Amino acid sequence: MKFGFFTISTFDLIPLCKHITDHVCLLSDENSVDMVQCQVANTLEYHNKVRKISIGEFAGRTDVRLQSFQFKIAKYFKLIYQMIRFQIKNRSAIFYTVDLPTLNIFMLIQSLFFFNRNYVIYHQFEILEPDAYTAYDRFNLALFKMMKKRLDLFICPEANRIEYFIEISGKATYRTYLFPNTTTPTHWVADTHISNDKTITIAHIGTAVGGHYTQQFLEVISDLDGIRDYKVQFIGYLPTEVKNLVQSYNLPHLELIDDLPHKKLQEYYGKIDIGIILYKDLGINYKYCAPNKLYEYWANGIYVIAHPLDGLVSIFADDKLGKLCDMDNEAEFKNAVLSAMEEWDNNTRVQIMAIFEEKYSIKIYFEGLSRILSEQFIN
Q1: Who has greater pLDDT, 180 or 347?
Q2: Where are the alpha helices (DSSP H) in 48-182?
């Protein structure tokens, strides 16, 4: 069975897509997976069965935000050409995308020229924000409503998001599947993953966006009573205003680490004890957040502290995994961190990894996805 992964943007900044392509390669014959995207240097490494086709290139993740008008037009023409080529060669295949414009273009081409339909999957990672609709967003949503009968499977990482998308796009004529932004279980050698070091490492991984709980976190860690030694790491891209804010606190136990390739992060995950998620309810994408870092923390046995956003409340099903606290309340935030520091020991990591393996491991969701696809194509 032929698989086509297409996006006008990039898969290289979505770790779950790497896991999905790896899984697809296990189901497929050699050279049966095409990936058409804008490539970002020094990011994810894919299975050798994946045939990568670039419609644009970026030197790093920050460059993705800096696209000229000419670049955008050129990549759309390249994308459309590859879509037509894919459909001419493959009359019964699986098409997968992560963005609405690419989905609409593919369904439009299919409806106009190719009546032997491919199986169409839309995996949504970003929600259209109603307060920030552009004319282009409204056009794409209207076009989707017209052609949604050609969509076969809608995958989403969080339950509220599925309901919200159906609400804004009309009654679903397609199948839906909940697939969290999870990851593969981490199998570490015990002496590299569990340390007797009494210093607790608290970390935030990923882009620290302005307007979230960064300043509240800095206030908390600047005034922690000495229950035990600790250090704090910010790992990932910091916009200038956030970096200036962090540096203005001049904390001796704070370390800033630049954005790292995903594979390189594993060297740090094994040494982190408490992971922080600083998302604030600044829109639908944060209210119904489903961060891959949450599952990467748990896969590595890391206790997580976050604000009780709607997208997180149902996921924190076991107190051993972490604590949801009101980060607007400095005392409550500080108590959550101090309590985690005081109670953390090597058994904490072992318990969290075991819970992750049982409830959130990616293999659980691959089994469900494979059953859906097997009903269509795979014997």
Answers
A1: 180
A2: 69-89, 100-113, 135-147, 159-169
101-107, long-range: CB within 8 Å, 24+ apart, which pairs? 101/8, 101/136, 101/140, 102/6, 102/7, 102/8, 103/144, 103/151, 104/140, 104/143, 104/144, 104/147, 105/76, 105/79, 105/80, 106/6, 107/147, 107/150, 107/151
Residue type, 299: A
Residue 130 pLDDT grade (very low, low, confident, very high; cuts 50, 70, 90): confident
H or E element, residue 57: strand 50-58
Torsion 54-59-61-66 (CA) sign: negative
Residue with more model confidence, 146 or 227: 146
Q: Distance from CA of residue 119 to its chain's centroid? A: 24
Task: Give the single-character DSSP code of 341.
Answer: H
d(CA 362, CA 146): 33
Q: What is the pLDDT of residues 246-265, one digit of tens each?
A: 999 999 899 999 988 777 88
End-to-end CA distance of the chain, in Å? 10
Q: What is the mean pLDDT of the chain?
A: 89
Return the sign of the alpha-carbon dihedral for residues 188, 60, 278, 233: positive
Distance CA 60, CA 330 (A): 36
Can you give the pLDDT at residue 30? Answer: 63
Question: Which residue from 299, 213, 375, 268 is spatially nearest to 16, judged by alpha carbons?
Answer: 299
**Cα dihedral 307→332→226→251 (10° resolution):** 50
pLDDT in tens, 271-314: 899 999 999 999 999 999 989 999 999 999 999 999 999 999 98
Q: How confident is the model at residue 225 (pLDDT cuts 50, 70, 90)?
A: low
Residues 6+ apart with CB under 8 A from 28: 1, 2, 3, 49
CA–CA gap between residue 106 and residue 84 (Å, rounded)? 9
CB 233 within 8 A of CB 201: yes
Matching residue, tokens 């992060």: 265
| Phi and psi angles of residue 353, each rounded to the nearest 5 degrees, phi first | -65, -35
Q: Which H helix or E strand runs over 361? A: none
Domains of the chain: 3-182+361-376 (3.40.50.2000), 190-359 (3.40.50.2000)
